Amino acid sequence: MDNNTKDNILNGVRSALIAFLVSIAISLVVSIIFNYSIFEKFNELMSGNLGLDKGANISSIIKITGIIFNFSLFNTVSQVRFGALIFIFIPVISFCISNRYIDKKRKIELSDIGVYLLSSGIFAMFQFIISLATKGELVEGININFATLGNFVTTVIFTFIIQLFIKFNYRVDTNNGGIKAFKYTYRIMGVIGTVIGIGIIIYGLKDYSKDVVKFIIAAILMLPNVIAYVFFYMIGLSMSFNEELQSAINNFINVDLTLQKIIYVRYIAIIVFLLIIVYIIFKMDKKNLIKNTLIYSISFSVFIGTLAYCSSINLINVKGMFSIRFSVSSFFLSWLIPLLAIWIVVLLYYLIAKVKEIINTP
Hints:
Helices cover 69% and strands 5% of the residues. It is mainly alpha-helical.
């Protein structure tokens, strides 16, 4: 085994260990805050009166730490999924810290892919171990067990994508037109989504704005998901949800999630998305158009598809709570539409360029 291989293995192990410890530390802090703020009310809601065992204790803190850690990786327990995108910052921050020791090169090499895969695999092993250690009954009638093969695989894939995203976006000096196009597209859409998302939240929660602290906390928790939902509407997809959720939303914030009453807003959003793609393709380096488009289309479709998966919420079978099911209308289309949209725009650009060339040919 040569020195480079040893270094790569050491980097992978170190990255996974640091990322895991940072993730657990952040999850523990959030768990403590949750336990000493609302856990008692949560326990009463879910279990009823349990006597003296309904307050925060070491057991509840440890179990909820494991839950938050797994929710940050968008894992499921008994098909229950809590896709709050605010939690995505836990693994992102963790791998930003852990990989800064191995991402000193301002380019990506094949060895980096190997390190990321090894790091993701070891991190998933830690996830499995902590899930085994924290499984059991959270409150009466609610058993928690994230130690499954499906969650292990999800953790490997998700953490690998996160590491690639961090590398391509913040630690690579590249002139690759496809990567640049991907960055510009999601950042432009992100700005649009943020502006619209803040407007939606302010409008939807205006009746609760008197309690400033709770209003700000709710806005921060909701904003990442709302931005993602704006992304989906821009590519032409709607949200799928159960009637009970829509009724609850109508009672509290009176927002029509289908936008059926203002359908023209959806059409405008789709047009804006296509104009962004046209602008990005127009600015792209045409010398390697096909290669750049391939990288661009795959990167962006994987990005949107990952958002669709992570932002889905399914709390149908949770004891004592009203049913919540909320997700993009089609996971398949969430990655297919961006892929096709980019290639269709490129094809039209190519055809227009050829027609123009023919016309100008003497």
